[in-house]
Amino acid sequence: MDSRSFQAFLSITENRSRILAMIVTMVQDFDVAEDLFQETVIEILNSEEQFDPTRSFTPWACGIAKNVVRQHWRRQKQTPSSGLDEMISDLAMVSTEGDDDLWHREQKALRSCFQKLPSRMQQLLLLRYGHNIKGRELAESVACRPGSIRTTLARLRGQLRHCIQAKTAEKMVKANL
Question: What is the DSSP letter of 19?
Fold first, then answer.
């Protein structure tokens, strides 16, 4: 592996969660997103000589991911209709833009907030978002009524969002002191 390929590999590794988050946003299935992420890595490595090192890596890589997802939609004949795919991919690209420090602070805050949840709620989130288990199977796995799973997940996401916002705001205040 030459130094340019090694640098591309490091950049992919550093930005894996952002690229994967964009893909998940577009396809809304973690298993499919993981497969598409692997395709994206191959495309990035095959296209690395086209990358301009004076520009930001993440938007470039996410542009490749966006094209990989579109190819997937064409193969599956599942392209969202009436321009929805453009809107979804544009919204997904928002996750690639912005402050890298904030991104890292939010990731650290998420880990901390997740660890504060009761173990049963951690298990629920891991099964749903880590293993892509849905519906009745998810409800049975955590001994919960199927009708309350959606509400519980929405509340958990809200709790995590609030906790992350509080932690990142707290760190911003401390940094400005």
Answer: H
